[in-house]
Design a protein that fits this description.
The complex is a heterodimer of chains A (206) and B (162).
Chain A: H1 15-31, H2 43-63, H3 70-117, H4 126-131, H5 135-168, H6 171-180, H7 199-202
Chain B: H1 16-33, H2 44-63, H3 70-105, H4 112-142, H5 145-161
The chains are: A mainly alpha (206), B mainly alpha (162).
């Protein structure tokens, strides 16, 4: 999946401002997959969403110290999202390979049994034990396919839960806010004494 | 997994292109630092570390893309991708075999022949993967990928230094 172009990036612009633009674009990109990927059959979109989460994650890896504190939390969330989507993708890639291998093994057995039958008027079931080398393998392949199907469903449910959690905690808005914050380097403690600050400036409601 | 080396001196007000130059230099060194012994099949950790370094390098090349000359960047990205694919061809079967082994340990022994049939395919891919990786490493050396990455970083730095 080609990354969406980030507008307004300039070589001489401050790093944090540039990364802010990139994060905002990557967030839009990530959010665009919803609600479509709530359908578990959207295999390629789920894969593209994983790539989008990965892009956001790598951008946050560079940015966390330059943005507000929520960026570090967001990095962890992006990693979680990328991980669960990656595991879903692994199931989506492996399951067709296992079922194809099973079909291939069965086709080879059919050919072997037919060859053993020769010109017989009907097929002798006893030939299955003597001439079909892959029969024993079918059980393990079926078990593997079953496991992959069930695991994929479980992971997809986890993905939906995680997304709901992100929405509930206001992930996107909080990260957009954090991307606009520029933490001031810590001042030496003798520069600022809380006692010296007027009480109304310390009050949230002031 | 090797953690990413910090980029010393990055700060919010640094010009984007200066940050690009600093980051690409470190990530490029990191990548080639893992290249020694990567074809040693007895130490799959090296392949993993180099693959992670390739991902990080690709990511920074994409993030800082506007800082680099477009044609040179396209060619470097394409070569880094070939290297990443080579590392993936070698690493993926390793991981799948490890997972399959762990999965098989929990199964009935009657499932063994099927698991073994799948594992034999993965082992064949593992062997082929080493050849793919060897070719990708050779291509990176022949195309002088490392120097081209350095040149990208230099050009990015120069674009804001004048």
């Amino acid at each position: 999946m080609k990354a969406a172009k980030v507008r307004g990036l300039k070589r001489e612009a401050p790093l944090a401002d540039s990364l802010q633009r990139i994060v905002e674009t990557r967030l839009r990109e990530l959010w665009a997959f919803m609600p479509g990927v709530q359908d578990p059959r959207r295999v390629s979109e789920l894969h593209d969403m994983r790539i989008a989460a990965k892009r956001l994650r790598y951008c946050l890896e560079i940015s966390t110290g330059l943005f507000g504190p929520y960026a570090a939390v967001a990095l962890g969330r992006a990693k979680e999202l990328q991980k669960v989507l990656g595991e879903i993708h692994d199931c989506d890639m492996t399951l067709p390979r296992v079922t194809a291998l099973s079909a291939q093994a069965q086709a080879a057995d059919v050919a072997a049994v037919l060859a053993a039958a020769g010109q017989a008027a009907d097929l002798d079931p006893a030939l299955l034990a003597s001439s079909a080398p892959n029969v024993a393998a079918q059980r393990g392949l079926a078990t593997t396919a079953l496991y992959l199907r069930a695991r994929r469903e479980l992971l997809f449910a986890r993905f939906l839960d995680l997304w709901l959690q992100l929405e509930r905690e206001g992930f996107r808005a909080r990260l957009e806010f954090a991307a606009g914050e520029r933490p001031v380097p810590a001042a030496p403690s003798h520069d600022l004494h809380v006692d010296a600050v007027p009480a109304d400036l310390l009050s949230v409601t002031a | 997994m090797a953690s990413a080396r910090p980029i010393d001196g990055l700060h919010a007000e640094l010009p984007f292109a200066t940050a690009a130059a600093m980051t690409v230099r470190v990530r490029s060194d990191e990548l080639f630092g893992h290249a020694d012994g990567v074809l040693d099949t007895y130490d799959p950790g090296r392949v993993h570390d180099m693959r992670v370094a390739t991902r990080r390098l690709r990511a920074v090349l994409e993030i800082y893309a506007p800082c680099f000359p477009a044609t040179a960047l396209k060619s470097v990205l394409s070569d880094v991708k070939v290297l990443a694919d080579g590392l993936g061809a070698r690493r993926d079967p390793d991981v799948q075999l490890e997972d399959l082994q762990a999965f098989a340990a929990a199964l009935d022994p009657q499932d063994g022949p099927g698991i073994e049939l799948f594992a034999s395919r993965l082992r064949a891919e593992q062997e082929a993967g080493n050849e793919v990786l060897a070719r990708a490493l050779e291509a990176a050396t022949e195309s002088d990928l490392r120097s081209r990455l350095t040149a990208l970083a230099d050009e990015s730095q120069a674009s804001v230094s004048v």
